[in-house]
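Study the following:
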Amino acid sequence: MSVPTKYRRILIVLNWLVAVLVILGLLGGESLVSELKNNDPAKIGARTGHTIIGGTALILKRARLVIRLRAAVPPHVNLASMQAHQSLYALVLAMAGPGVATSLAAGLPGTLFFGTGTLPATFDDLTARAAMASSPKH
C-alpha cells in the first residue's frame, strides 16, 4: 500500500460540510431558535431545522471519523494538526450531546417530526439543559 500525499477527497468534503453545518446550526440556534418564544408556532419549524442541521453534522462527523480511522495519514500531518482535528471532533460531540439529550428529555422528536406534542413552556428545568447553560436559552 502506498503512502498518500494528501487526505482522501471524501474526508476533505466531509470536513467542510460539517464545518458549514456547525456554523449554520450556531447561527440558526442563536438567531432563530433562541429568539422565538416556545408558544410561537414558528418555533417548531425553527427548532426542527436546527435539529436536522445538528443531527446531520453529527452523523457526517462520525462517518468522517470512521473513514479517517481506516485511511492512512499523509506524511505531512504533524502532531499539532492531529490534535487540532481531535479537538474539533470533541467540540462537535460536546455541542451535539447536550442537544440530543435535551431533545429526548423534552420529547421533541415526536413534536418536531410527527406533530404528536407541544414544546415545553421552558427547557431550563431539564438536566441536560444545564450543559448548555452558557448558551442562549432555547
Observations:
- The radius of gyration is 18 Å.
- The mean pLDDT is 84.
